[in-house]
Amino acid sequence: MEHETDGDVSSAPSGEHEPELLNAREDLYDGMIVELDNSPSDVARFVSSLKASLVEWEKKGKKGVWIKVPIAKTNLVPALIEEEFWYHHAERTYVMLVYWIPKSPCTLPANASHQVGVCAFVMNDNGEVLVVQEKNGAYRGSGIWKMPTGLLVQGEDIFNGVVREVKEETGIDAKFLEVAVLRHFHNAPFNKSDLNLICILQPLSFVIKIQETEIEAAKWMPFKEFAAQPKYRESELYKKIFDVCIASFEKRYKGFSEIQIASASSGPQTVLYYNVQDMNDFNQSNGVNI
Predict the structure, then answer these.
(1) Radius of gyration of the chain (CA)
(2) Of all residues in the chain, what percent carry a pLDDT higher than 90?
(3) Within 102-221, where are the H helices?
């Protein structure tokens, strides 16, 4: 759709009210963000305001337009599609549509391309690893024992998320020690990619209480027995992951620990993950005092 900019939007025909512009705020990239909570619910009035707004924004050299449509006003979505907006993403309470004003190539960022998962390697002093069998998913009914896993929720740190997953699935309290392995793969659900962080945790309790809605069984299993399962024994991928996890457990390898650092602004703390041991050795050998 093309929006003419050489006309004066204030010159409405006699007897007609000039359409109100949509309530919007500028973003940091010469774009506009619109939330429709207080916009007209009447489709005709909304389209009139939308067209007038696009004309005005084009005059000002604006580029991307983000329109957040709450569930209560999804009757406006077909009108937005008709005006050549397209879907960007959706959440429980809204759908986001976008539009690119200039004739130059669109540079709006795409929707999230990755999901972030965590996997917990929890081993006790007897050389037993905490394992589960799932009621759902790819492993359902397979008899395969696996490490506790899950996806991070919005706003959740890696070290907190993996501790939560272990507690939810097995009832075991654990302490995050480090990220041992980062696995990156594609073809995850809905054509997304996956960042999976295999983390080393120290158990703080040992009595298992399973999450009955998702977990069929859980137990402490000798590591050699766990790794000898055909799925793992025949996989070079899992062999390498287990080698790294055991090396970490035996203190022969140091992964990434979490370091919480106060933000320079008034915002929340930032969490860095890096090899603390090697960094300390480097600083000492080079006389660095941080």
Answers:
(1) 27
(2) 78
(3) 158-170
Range 44-72 average pLDDT: 96
* CA 51/CA 232 separation, integer angstroms: 59
Q: Which DSSP letter does residue 115 get?
A: E
Model pTM above 0.70:
yes
Is the confidence at residue 5, as pLDDT, over 80?
A: no
Tokens describing residue 211: 């999450």
Query: Which pairs count as long-range contacts for 143-150, CB under 8 Å and 24+ apart, including other chains?
Result: 144/229, 144/231, 145/219, 145/221, 145/226, 145/229, 147/119, 147/120, 147/121, 147/122, 147/198, 148/119, 148/120, 148/122, 149/117, 149/118, 149/119, 149/120, 149/196, 150/117, 150/118
The bridge status of strand 86-90 relative to strand 114-122 is unpaired
Q: How far is CA 230 from CA 41, 143, 145, 217, 244, in A?
A: 59, 11, 11, 19, 19
With residues binned 3-state (H G I as helix, E B as strand, rest as coil), the percentages for the chain, rounded to 5, are 30, 30, 40
What pLDDT is stored for residue 19 in this prediction? 86
Which two tokens mark 151? 């996806």
Encode pLDDT of 160-188 as tens digits. Answer: 999 999 999 999 999 999 999 999 999 88
d(CA 237, CA 54): 52
Mark residue 287 as left, alpha or beta (left: phi above 0; alpha: psi -120 to 50; beta: remaining): left
Locus of tokens 């993403």: 89
CB environment 225-240: b (16+ within 10 A), e (fewer): ebbebeebeeeeeeee
